[in-house]
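User: Show me a protein chain along with its predicted structure.
Assistant: Here is one chain, sequence first, then structure tokens.
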Amino acid sequence: MIHSIFILNSTGEVIIEKHYRGNTSRTESGAFWNQTAKSARGIPIDAPPFLPTPKGALIHLHRNGLFFLASVLTDTQPLFVTQFLESLADVFVDYFGELNEHAIKDNFITVYELLEEMLDNGFPLTVEPNTLKELITPPSMINRVFESLGADSAKTATMSYASPRTPWRRADVKYAQNEIFVDVIETIHATYSATRRNLSQLLIAGVVKVNSRLSGNPDLAMRIRANAPFDDVALHRCVRLNRYQESGQLAFVPPDGPFKLMTYKIRETNSLNLPIDVQSQIKFDHNACSGSVSISLVPRFASAVAPSLSGASSVPSGSMILSQVMNAAGGKAMGLSEPDSVMDHVSVRIPFGTFVTGCSLSANYGTVQFESTTGTCTWNVGAVPRGKTPSLVGQITLQDGSAAVAANPQILVSFRIPGYSTSGVFVESLDMLPPERYKYYKGLRCITKAGLYEVRT
């Protein structure tokens, strides 16, 4: 299995190393870095994730400028190691709130404690954040004071589990107020062609996150509906796989606290409508060393609906699903306010190139910034009220001789839409099965955001 773990920063420096089966020489990490520099564009992130070595292989994961590098033997399944590296990165985010070089260096002790607990002699042992927090206390100001005094802030007591069949859930969980929240978060990856008449690429990546604060050992059954079939479904290990394969129902005993219940992708997107249409027109006049820019963001939201869990069997694609109470049997109504029907965190980036030396652009919403060293224009729109159309217009200045190097830029759009589901995914029902029976709060929230949302001009 895994012999050693290395964490490298963006310059190839090893900031963390942990060995499980003998010491792997740092020269292997140096060899990895030398190979990544030979990638197609000379950029480390373009390197293949699997790199053969004389004794085995190096498998890496790139995340936020950090490289998680695992040294393994040739008989190891690469995807198994990649999945562990993904879990390791997610645990760091859960513990430190962010994942970067500074977060790793500020929490050296906690990082090594996690690496010691998550792998046993190179084999993954404990990867569930909720379970790890019972063993290793997340860093805080009080913990840092204890560490500076030489005291051990980690919990050393052995965890007791609710059952040998549910090692992800601790025993004797009790809450004065029982509640469970479900977040359906979808990320749109779309590429418009230069004519904007069709989409060169469209993919929706979704994740169902659950925050469970339920007493006892609850057995839940959830049914999720969508207007397009799911692809590449990955389920939390608490889900009973046989039940899901037979009926599509998610039956599970949840871990205590937040966790990812399900991830999926949707590729059959012919019937789906994108929430934002980007209308752009960029023209260059090389004789006058100038150009004109006109960009508009047109919201394409459907009318708002709030389906009940026991109501209609389908929801129109691109529907506005409001934050709502899931009033299934056994659940108790909880008042959640409807979100404003707006886009927020909206921004547009236009990497013109260094042949653009200046610009005079104005927008009816937000602020416009221009970085002259890279020729990149950033339009920070912010929040957009429903029914409004943000627009950016103006002139740009070109350097002499730009005709030989000028190229139409790609427009990169970023946004977030609370209460919106592009694919129409929604939770149809959520029930608690015997023997546990008590009143509990249940809430649903949908969020759509942009991944690689690109418009070619």
